[in-house]
Design a protein that fits this description.
The complex is a heterodimer of chains A (166) and B (277).
Chain A lengths: L7 E8 L2 E8 L4 H8 L18 E4 L2 E4 L12 E3 L1 H7 L3 H9 L9 H12 L7 H7 L11 H19 L1
Parallel strand pairs in A: 1-5
Antiparallel strand pairs in A: 1-2, 3-4, 3-5
Helix pairs in contact in A: 3-6
Chain B lengths: L6 E4 L3 H9 L5 E4 L5 H6 L7 E4 L9 E3 L3 E5 L4 H6 L1 H6 L1 H7 L5 H4 L4 H7 L5 H9 L2 E6 L2 E6 H4 E3 L2 E2 L6 E8 L6 E7 L9 E8 L2 E7 L6 E2 L1 H8 L3 H11 L10 H23 L1
């Protein structure tokens, strides 16, 4: 290998508010680093080519595919997983709405759904059901048929909008 | 499956990236947003790449007004292209195309330069820049050069870029007074690659029509353009049918793709008419 390239890359990043350091293989994606090195197994590695959305994370404020971003590229980034959102309590209403609306069965897609839905809800206002479906179109659920997930996101959008104007 | 990269290096600037490419013994691979490359690596369609990560190079991102054209940095992300006020005002086709590209989380990372250099025949941006008559800007060891969109797309995943060159930006003419631009496509699900798609631009100088996901590169349908200039829609449909020889695959048969192209052309012509009323 030429000296300019490394097969292991040193990274420093923030994960769920905590500073983290690591030495990662050049080709390792971010979800494997989170799951295997940090033990944060909330984001799931499933299709690993960007189709299913189970690995969706928040990186520097935006929802991204954890399987399509190398851990090496996350150097300096601020990463949030469903564990951090849960601990912080910022998604508690959305998580409770998922339970109340039966928006999950096996739960495999749920962490990705939560992060993707928060990405939409962060824009404010109350999105239409069509907009919610479109925004979640990259997150597969094989159990619910999606209707209950759209219900849950719509409930939370309405509740948060109501809170904002109260 | 898991990726098998040969190595990784983060470029500080374009010169550094070019030096890294030169030092890679022909195994260099530009990594930008990674939304196609990392997927290909994970599936082991690409192994042993020496990754040159250009994603942090300052100055390769963003949109600049250069008078008659907009310059779009290669690292401008799809979501930024879709939301940019200059692009929305002056190149509506490009902003409209973003809604068809994959899903929100992918649009947050994917870059327009990456999409063009990757040259997926089913992707929207290559067909857009061909329809718009864009100029692509590349930089290599011997300096910079400009490549017309007509000359850029050569084959499946193959462009006019040399192995030691990097795509740095795209310039696209601003929409003229009275110009209309529409994109039409059919995909099975929102965010899927198009089974067939097309871009239609109507300018003072005439129509420009490109069709994608029907062959190894986006197709500039010149016969149909000439017929549209003459106001002959049936003639344009016939010329397009003549020009197309799409593949059959697991997604769609060749006959179905040809059928879609005809339907989409008629829809696009109708929408162009509505835009101009």
């Amino acid at each position: 290998m030429t000296a300019a390239f490394s097969d292991k890359v040193d990274i420093e990043l923030t994960v769920n508010g905590e500073p983290v350091e690591g030495r990662v293989p050049a080709g390792q994606h971010l979800v494997d680093f989170l799951r295997q090195t940090l033990g944060l197994t909330g984001a799931h590695a499933s299709c690993e080519h960007g189709v299913c959305g189970a690995c969706t994370l928040r990186v520097d404020g935006q929802a991204v595919r954890g399987c399509l971003m190398l851990a090496a590229q996350a150097d300096g980034a601020e990463v949030w997983t469903v564990e951090g959102l849960t601990e912080q309590g910022s998604s508690r209403d959305l998580q409770q709405a998922f339970v109340a609306r039966n928006a999950l069965q096996c739960g495999f897609c749920t962490p990705g759904m939560i992060v993707a839905a928060e990405d939409l809800l962060a824009r404010g206002g109350v999105p239409s059901r069509a907009e919610i479906r479109e925004h979640l179109s990259g997150n597969y659920c094989r159990c619910t048929g999606y209707e209950a997930i759209v219900d849950a996101v719509e409930d939370v959008a309405q509740a948060r909008a109501g809170k904002g104007t109260a | 499956m898991k990726a098998s990269a040969g190595g990784y290096a983060r470029a500080r600037d374009v010169r550094h990236a070019l030096d890294l490419l030169a030092a890679s013994d022909g195994m260099g691979r530009i990594l930008a947003g990674g939304q196609s490359l990392v997927a290909a690596m994970n599936m082991r369609l690409s192994e042993g790449d020496m990754l040159v990560d250009i994603s942090r190079i300052a100055g390769l991102s963003g949109v600049t007004d250069e008078g008659d054209v907009l310059r779009i940095g290669a690292l401008t992300r799809h979501a930024e292209v879709g939301a940019d006020p200059l692009i929305r005002a002056h190149i509506p086709l490009l902003a409209a195309a973003v809604d068809y590209i994959a899903h929100a989380a992918i649009r947050n990372r994917g870059t327009i330069g990456g999409a063009l250099a990757h040259a997926d025949p089913a992707a929207e941006f290559p067909a857009c820049v061909l329809a718009l008559g864009a100029t692509l800007h590349a930089e290599g060891p011997d300096g910079t050069r400009e490549i017309a969109a007509e000359d850029f797309f050569q084959d499946v995943f193959t462009t006019a870029l040399a192995e030691d060159e990097i795509l740095t930006g795209i310039t696209i003419p601003k929409v003229e007074q009275g110009e209309a631009q529409v994109l039409e496509e059919v995909a099975r699900r929102s965010g899927d690659y198009a089974l067939t798609g097309m871009c239609l631009v109507k300018r003072g100088a005439g129509h420009r029509l490109t069709v994608f996901s029907v062959g190894p590169t986006p197709l500039l349908a010149q016969g149909a353009m000439t017929a549209l200039d003459a106001g002959d829609i049936d003639g344009a449909v016939a010329a397009l049918a003549e020009a197309l020889d799409p593949p059959s695959d697991t997604q769609a048969s060749a006959a179905y793709r040809k059928h879609l192209a005809e339907v989409l052309l008629r829809r696009a012509v109708a929408r162009i008419g509505e835009q101009q009323v």
